[in-house]
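In this section we walk through a basic example: taking a raw amino acid sequence and producing a predicted 3D structure, encoded as discrete structure tokens. The instruction is simple. Fold the sequence below.
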Amino acid sequence: MVAIPGGKFRMGNADAAAVAGDGEGPIRTVRVSAFLLDATAVTNRRFARFVADTGYITDAERFGWSYVFRLFVGPAQRPHVLDASVPEAPWWLAVRGTSWRAPEGPGSGLTARQQHPVVHVSWNDAVAYAAWADKRLPTEAEWERAARGGLDQARYPWGDELVPDGQWRCNIWQGRFPYHDTGADSHVGTAPVKSYPPNRFELFEMVGNVWEWTADRWSASWHSDERPETRIDPQGPSTGNVRVVRGGSYLCHDSYCNRYRVAARTSNTPDSSTGNTGFRCAADLPHVRTAV
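The resulting token sequence is shown next.
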């Protein structure tokens, strides 16, 4: 884990690229206490240790299916596609037998993906892993503080330019979405953790690769109030049925979703899982357990 210094930072933005209704603004000064954060998203290898130790069964395994990006559904998986389409996102297919162990469904596996972020994990699954590891999920404010790496109002964890000096710094979609990803950033689908340079806090892939669950409940307006609890170690609203996810993923593309910016946000229900959502854990200081 990496120690993230406490202090004030300007959270949110007024970027014209913000998605309407996401509640990225207003820009507000937030104070966050020092904390620890995993340097990378939790990997398949680390999640497998948790499952082996506890016998945990994920939500996707209990439901018997999860959402797979359409281009990753091959001949072996097509007979297992269910009628559970997402009208606003037809590129997602519900595939029976999909889980963290089989990311594309029956016939797929993790042999070459031990160091890739675990996916098809719900918020509930992430919380269970964090409890086993004597950690927790980061708050949304902690996540953004960490992602910014000490930069003030930069668009990305490394600055304002997406591809500085022609070098890709994150795993997102290149090409015509959702038909063809050129893989110009060297990856199609998830990338192994530490595939790109870290930010100034030595955190890897804070944007792109996989969405990351946070502890907070979702609201597009709670943080716009001037209440003290929205400015000092904010925990998010006390009620609500969905949770905040941050960072974007390998499926993000400017043509429909540019949420790989550090201020961008969206949400999902706590039992939902997809092939582009994972998590990393936080912990309070001091923290003595380091084996996980």
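Looking at the output, two observations stand out. Helices lie at 44-54, 59-63, 123-132, 140-148. The chain has a mean pLDDT of 95. In the next section we compare this with other chains.
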